[in-house]
Write a structure and sequence with these properties.
The structure holds two protein chains of two kinds. By secondary structure, chain A is an alpha+beta fold. Chain A has four helices and nine strands. Classes of the chains: A alpha+beta, B alpha+beta. Chains A and B meet through β4, α2, β5, β6 and β7 of A and α11 and α12 of B.
Chain lengths: 161, 303
């Protein structure tokens, strides 16, 4: 084995290690931007995905490291308590959801008045072994209602990468 | 013979004495019977009282006067009849009435004892008097709409709006619809806290009812006394008492009305939490920073 071939092998392994260490440079999920929405780049690091409609309905996805471990019920209850007791949101509905890929999650719908306007905030949570995925939808009640089908489409097409 | 002559007169004397004693005893028995009857209780102030306290001799003389006119009556009645003719009408009523009637007079106040037997005999059906109240705290969402829905619910259940602000509403609903109203309100949104209280005011209700009844009865009697007042001073005094009683009756009526109203209509207060409640620090908080970043404020803040 020549010195060059050894060097090449070393670089390949190093590159592989770097890719694994950085999470392959991408997200652990895949999502599709619904019609009428635009994906936004260079957003806050807490959001791994963000899109908005022209009328102000925002879709965002958080990917959170699942540490410490907890089951889905724990995280759903933690979110529910936080939003109700601390943030003053009204819990309007809780329902199970399922994606086309078979992921099972829970969707919480909250209501909130801001400056005299009724807003809706929908949180969908998927819990896997390594990650907690939060799909956040927000906007005025009218627009959220109008975009309900598109938002449901986002949930249905969400899947792990 | 002398001996017989001396023996006979004492025998006759003894027999005669025996007959006299027998006659006297027969007569004395009737007098004793009348005397016994004469010691029966008589009404105070009755003319017969002095007669009843007289000695046997006097009683025997009275019997001698009344005996030819009528046969001997039962033991109790002779006193009544004998004294009834001289008894004043009010005193006679006092004898026959089931409860003592106060003697007429401007300074006479009806004693409590006089009214107690009447009240005690009135059986009031005992039923629980309960006052239901509830306070609900709900998360704020579409406050105006929710306030309107709560008000509409109250009207639909036969109740009414009691108080309303920008974030709080108080409704009154019939007690029978209390649970129904709570269910309806809970279905409108997210109930954060719920405080339901039931106050048993049965004892106070019955107490006020009895006191009111007594006061009314006393007022009627005092009104009668006012009609019989002999001078201005008496009238003024009675009127003062009448005025005091009227005020007391009004106060009791007000209290009774308040209790009845509170029991008839339950009170439900719904408070919608203000928008910003992050200043309120609960004792417990999960140590996951991302939880605190949830919400519309961050989501809608686009770069």
């Amino acid at each position: 084995m020549t010195r060059n071939s050894l060097r090449m092998r070393y670089l390949v392994w190093l590159g592989a290690i770097v890719l694994v260490a950085t999470g392959c440079g991408g997200s652990a999920f895949f999502t599709a931007t619904p019609p009428g929405f635009v994906e936004l780049e260079d957003q806050e690091p807490d959001y791994q995905y963000r899109a908005t409609s022209a009328d102000g309905v925002v879709v965002a996805i958080r990917e959170i490291e699942h540490e410490p471990k907890g089951d889905k019920e724990f995280w759903v209850q933690a979110i529910r308590n936080r939003m109700r007791e601390r943030a003053g949101y009204a819990l309007l509905a809780t329902q199970p959801v399922k994606t086309k890929s078979g992921m099972e999650g829970t969707q919480l719908q909250f209501g909130h008045d801001e400056k005299g306007q009724s807003m809706l905030y929908t949180l969908t949570i998927f819990v896997t072994e390594d990650h907690i995925f939060l799909l956040e939808f927000g906007g005025t009640k009218e627009e959220m209602t109008r975009q309900a089908a598109h938002l449901a489409w986002v949930v249905e097409n969400f899947r792990m990468a | 013979m002398r001996t017989r002559n001396w023996a006979w007169p004492p025998l006759v004397w003894v027999l005669s004495l025996f007959v006299m004693v027998w006659a006297a005893m027969a007569t004395a028995c009737g007098g004793a019977k009348y005397a016994e009857a004469a010691h029966a209780p008589a009404a105070p102030g009755m003319p017969g009282q002095a007669y009843a306290a007289s000695d046997d001799g006097y009683a025997m003389r009275e019997e001698a006067e009344y005996a030819p006119e009528a046969p001997a009556p039962p033991a109790e009645e002779p006193v009544m009849e004998a004294t009834g003719s001289a008894m004043p009408a009010p005193a006679k009523m006092a004898q026959n009435a089931p409860q003592p009637e106060p003697a007429p007079g401007p300074t006479t106040k009806p004693s409590d004892k006089a009214s107690e037997p009447t009240v005690a005999s009135d059986a009031i059906p005992i039923q629980q008097v309960l006052i239901y109240t509830a306070q609900l705290s709900m998360a704020v969402f579409q406050v105006d709409k929710s306030l309107g829905e709560v008000e509409t619910l109250a009207r639909n259940l036969g109740g009414f709006l009691s108080h309303r602000t920008d974030t709080q509403i108080t409704i009154r609903v019939p007690a029978a619809q209390f649970d129904e109203a709570l269910k309806g309100i809970a279905g409108m949104g997210d109930v954060l806290t719920r405080n339901v209280q039931v106050e048993d005011v049965t004892e106070e209700y019955l107490d006020v009812t009895l006191r009111l009844k007594n006061a009314r009865q006393v007022r009627e009697r005092i009104a009668q006394l006012l009609a019989n007042a002999k001078n201005v001073e008496e009238s003024l005094e009675v009127e003062r008492e009448l005025h005091r009683l009227s005020a007391e009756i009004e106060r009791l009526e007000g209290r009774l009305k308040y209790l009845s109203n509170k029991a008839q209509y339950s009170t439900i207060t719904v408070t919608f939490r203000p928008e910003q409640v992050d200043d309120v620090r609960p004792a417990f908080q999960l140590p996951f920073p991302w939880l605190r970043e949830l919400g519309l404020g961050r989501l809608m803040n686009l770069r």
